[in-house]
Amino acid sequence: MNSPLAATGTARLLESLSPLIPDSFINELLPPAKHPGRRNILSAAQLYRAHLLAVLTPVHSFNGLARLLPEQRSWRAFAHIHHRHRTPDVRMLHEFRARAGVAGLRRINEHLLSPLLKVAAHHPHSVAIIDATDLPASTADKKKTVAAGRRDEPVWVPVRSKPVTLGFLWVTKSTPCGYGSAIIQRRCCLFP
Question: Is residue 156 part of a domain?
Fold first, then answer.
């Protein structure tokens, strides 16, 4: 399949997607917080672009992104971070997500999708776009399944995980112990 987009993680893909991100809209939507203390060295648009790097590059974690961003010139160019040593750390990315919230990130997504939806409305074939924020999270309680034995049940039935029990408790449950300042007296056959 020939795609007009470059492969994920390449500098060419980042260069082609960079003009599509509405930096001025993001900066107006999420202005810098006015509080005493540390000044923000990065704008909201730069932090949003850094978040996109976790999806557009093979890094897939903010810890890895914060560690590798100073070394990757094309990633810094995409995020409009010009100084190699002034890259966002994990704390800055977390604070940005907390400040933007779900509502702010949805407004950015709606702004990005509006030109696409205007064009798609004029085509005879409909296009479906999934908003992943409404999908349930892939958590441990939704992953474990066991094959059912009876024919009247579905083939796969979700099973709740058993609570974890500590393995050393069975050894120490019945062991007598003494503590505190009380004297523990033992009977001995040598001394009456």
Answer: no
